Amino acid sequence: MAFRRAASSGVLLVATLLSIACRNINSPQARQDFEAAIRDDQIDTIQRMLDAGFNPNQEPSGDCSTPLALAAMHGNADSVTLLFEHGAQPDAPAASDSRTALQCVAELEQALPEMVALLLQNGADVNLTRRDGTTALMLAASRGHVETVRLLLEAGADIHMRSEAGKTAVALAVEMKRTEVVKLLEGAGAKLPAQPAGPEETQGMTVTSLLTSAGMIVLGETWDEARPKIETGEHLDTFHQTPTRSIETCRINGQVYRLIFERVRTGPYKLARIEIQ
Fold first, then answer.
1. What's phi and psi for 262, nearest 5 deg?
2. Cα–Cα distance measured from residue 27 to residue 61, given in angstroms and rounded to the nearest whole number
3. H or E segment at 260?
4. Which of 14, 144, 261, 273 is the most exposed place for a label (fewest CB within 10 A)?
5. CA 151 to CA 131: how far, in whole Å?
6. How many Å apart are CA 159 and CA 204, to the nearest integer?
7. For residue 111, pLDDT beyond 90
């Protein structure tokens, strides 16, 4: 039975090699044969096809369809290495939205940190963005790939970069409830995004928990205590509604807040509540 399988594989290899010799390497069928060899990690076939002139930097025909992206997404380390040896460009667009092989791997449902490491070792730009401003770190964070996120951080991934939608990697991790990734990014210095609170939370610490973790204000602080922190953001307006209330409008971490300070008699103004604008 093993002999039959080996013989069958040999026949397939011979047929493929004859196909290479007889067909235009730029034909659609030749491309399909090349892609199939890469997906199946057929190193000998890939080697012969590259030697015959197949382009390791073929333009993508669909999402993540370049030879390098296909090999990396299938976890075929030998194929990835071989493609690099024949001049594969690590940051060549692998899809119409300018995704690179690194980004294609980072957004897979199943984490492939060994492929991420291999791409980075061969010069993949860790902070390159696809057309919507999304980085590999953002994609891996939203998927919850802890080890991939760690590798990207070690390679110099910028935790402060934002997509065109204004989202950072940690914001995406928070949205997707990727707790371990959030902790990892926080440890690297990422600031948690401010989140709107429900009506029942407007008098409690929950409203300001994210601001507090970012080193911002907390309820009960006096005006004098809070003011230096407010001024680290963008102070937009001050409005004294009554002698017992002062309302400050500020932009902190990209979110606009109304900070309501109240006082009793002649006591100091103290932060009573925060409203999301």
1. -130, 155
2. 13
3. strand 255-262
4. 14
5. 23
6. 30
7. yes
* DSSP assignment letter at 199: G
Burial of residue 169, with CB atoms counted within 10 A of its CB: 0-12 exposed, 13-18 middle, 19 or more buried: buried
Tell me if 112 is assigned to some domain.
Answer: no
Residue 230's domain comprises 199-276
- Boundary of a domain, candidates 59, 75, 97: 97
Residue 114 in any domain: the answer is: no
Backbone φ/ψ region at 63: left (φ over 0), alpha (ψ -120 to 50), beta: beta
178-230 pLDDT tens trace: 999 999 999 999 988 765 444 333 333 333 444 444 445 666 777 777 766 65
Domain end position, chosen among 48, 74, 97:
97
- Shortest CA distance to 43 belongs to which of 92, 18, 9? 9
